[in-house]
């Protein structure tokens, strides 16, 4: 017996004769496999199902969260606090660590069910010939060599070589992206190098049979099928960290260096001074708590969660909070065509009837729409065409747009409805007397009926098929007014019309008739012989139309500096026409040309390529990978199984809500309304959230620098025994003061010009040089004000009892943080411009909390604060007001300098945007 081990997945079965394939698989056309052979093959190949990845356990995810550098530093602080008896500090820090771990784990505990979803798509039943008898069994029981029978409505249970077919067509959009059904026949293909979508003698697992019947020998099962290979790609694609995660990791390392360097300096100074170990450890804890952004993970999580809720309201569901920020950095959108940019509903757009052009409006399978023509022409009699549309097809379309049957035929039924003809009623009134079923071998369909034509009943043949095939069987054609002329008089016109529609990416079908009064018996006996001497009626141009919002969404993306590319399984000519209608950039390429290019050649050509046709799942994955290596943040949209691997590879995989379950599981975001425009809305929200994160980190880092400087200076110059504030004072600031300025930043409305800016450079980290200088400058400002207030406050300083200078420093730091949050919520715009009332209401809460921390007895005991007089409160407020005044003055200076140095606005539209559309 010939082995069909994993190497068979690379066998070019489509290039081998059907009998040779059966022989290679040691099977039999008529008898199939024996029970013994099946058992032996199942032991070798396993069941016909997709293997799934075991999801990570909750505990393993929690452990990863604990290993985060920020949390490890906090754990060290808690341990040291316990050692020296600072139990309240240890408890508060431990609670914070637990909160960080719980929040992080909740978001990561999402079953990566991409492969599981593929397994769930497995067809439950299949009709198989075994031991010479036809039997029905679970599709998971199939093995290579099984002979399977297929008919319309079936889901293909495994990959296989077709042995016989009768008018077979399959819908392969889920696998290849091809929107129209694919005609199949068992003829051997002459070359090995044939793209997946063109392997017309193969059936593929989980594609659907829309027409006809077939017999197929199974060549691959389980993980060796095309679906299995996609599952393998999903398993191989490791989820990458988002840009924000990478930047926060980098920032954490910087902060760690600052924190532990500062602690080391303080400890060395303490040792030189001969301070006892407990005091040194207390200083170290205070310094550590000051320098570690204890609230950073929690607050960033909260801001991202707020963004996720906004996205959900906009019908975009993100699975992980960090994906919210990734959206804001998107610089490239790779979009699938079928069902994403288009409606996945075949529609007649153009009609050439009796040598005259007509335009058909209306979208999708809605039966509303008009057929318009040139002014001054008589309204034509569409009777013969309407007969062909209804009677030369089998599909049905309900009033709600639900289709049963071939999508292309559904488009013809809808066109008939727009003419005013009811297809089901017409079929019942004029049943078929004889028929030549469609077959890819001759590419036409013919039916014979008794029809009402010119006021009397006639026996008429109706023919539908490819224009070249139908024209070759015609001898005459209709001109306006149903004037019948020799075909040669109008052949050039008809050929030009066919070419015009094809160049627009339309799928063209031609219709012809023949009157056969008196020849009924002969026609019924041999209908094929009468598909000749036809009279040409007309042609229709069919396309999967664009979603109404797609063109506007592409224009908005271009204005935002985002490159949009269309990647589809359709032929390049169709894809190119759609791309031109969308207003994409220049350049179209087919899958074969793409595969012939090296990665270096493709990378160099990418700026000039915006439409990719006839691509495979591997091509989509490769394109995403190359774009990411070039520094792009890639969003990939799609709704079919063939998009899944690329969606998982992309920085932000965007699945459509009506798409396959595997695609929704592989993607990082799901558009519940299938609206490509919602992606642009999501990017706008993502940019806004990123701006808010930058504002928050600016605010947080400024305060951290001020605390670090305060503790260093206090230690170096032995101010208050080297302890500027107690550890609980610092934690109180983090928990109960900074929380409210962060809320102000979160709720601030987005900038009006948010989508007129180019995407941010993902290579430019949050902690870049300019930002770092700004954080340090603002931190020095807050430190200087707090230190001055402490040194000039009356009273003795002591770390063992409450004192006025330390309390003054605490109050000035609190008030300064509150006012800093107000002015730092925007940059470089002023933070004092409307809306401001809501912000002031929120900031009144930490102001009151600060008063309680100083004046309430139980908080005085906990924090080591003491009551202040009215004059001391006014002094604290005066010191605090210096901070917003200086920050606003610095921003005003930057705005003025930018205004004077900015180049004049360009007088022309951006190159990526069509000026006509821009208007």
From TrEMBL:
Its primary localisation, in coarse terms, equals membrane
Residues annotated as domain Cation-transporting P-type ATPase N-terminal: 12-86
Membrane topology per the entry is: Multi-pass membrane protein
User: Which GO cellular component terms, listed alphabetically, does the Swiss-Prot or TrEMBL entry include?
Assistant: plasma membrane
- MF GO annotations: ATP binding; ATP hydrolysis activity; ATPase-coupled monoatomic cation transmembrane transporter activity; metal ion binding; metal ion transmembrane transporter activity; P-type ion transporter activity
Catalytic reactions of this protein: ATP + H2O = ADP + phosphate + H(+)
Identify the Pfam families for this entry: Cation_ATPase, Cation_ATPase_C, Cation_ATPase_N, E1-E2_ATPase, Hydrolase_3
Bias (Low complexity): 908-919
Q: Which GO biological process categories is it annotated with?
A: inorganic cation transmembrane transport
**SUPFAM superfamilies in the cross-refs:** Calcium ATPase, transduction domain A, Calcium ATPase, transmembrane domain M, HAD-like, Metal cation-transporting ATPase, ATP-binding domain N
Q: Where is this region: Disordered?
A: 29-54, 900-919
InterPro entries reported for this sequence: ATPase_P-typ_cation-transptr_C, ATPase_P-typ_cation-transptr_N, ATPase_P-typ_cyto_dom_N, ATPase_P-typ_P_site, ATPase_P-typ_TM_dom_sf, ATPase_P-typ_transduc_dom_A_sf, ATPase_P-type_domA, HAD-like_sf
User: Where located?
Assistant: Cell membrane
Q: Where are the transmembrane segments?
A: 72-103, 254-274, 280-300, 704-725, 731-751, 772-792, 804-824, 836-858, 870-887
| Keywords for the protein's UniProt record, in alphabetical order | ATP-binding, Cell membrane, Membrane, Metal-binding, Nucleotide-binding, Translocase, Transmembrane, Transmembrane helix
Q: Which Gene3D superfamilies match?
A: Calcium-transporting ATPase, cytoplasmic domain N, Calcium-transporting ATPase, cytoplasmic transduction domain A, Calcium-transporting ATPase, transmembrane domain, HAD superfamily/HAD-like
Q: What is this protein called?
A: Cation-transporting P-type ATPase
Q: Where does this protein come from, organism-wise?
A: Rhodococcus opacus
Classification from the root reads: Bacteria, Bacillati, Actinomycetota, Actinomycetes, Mycobacteriales
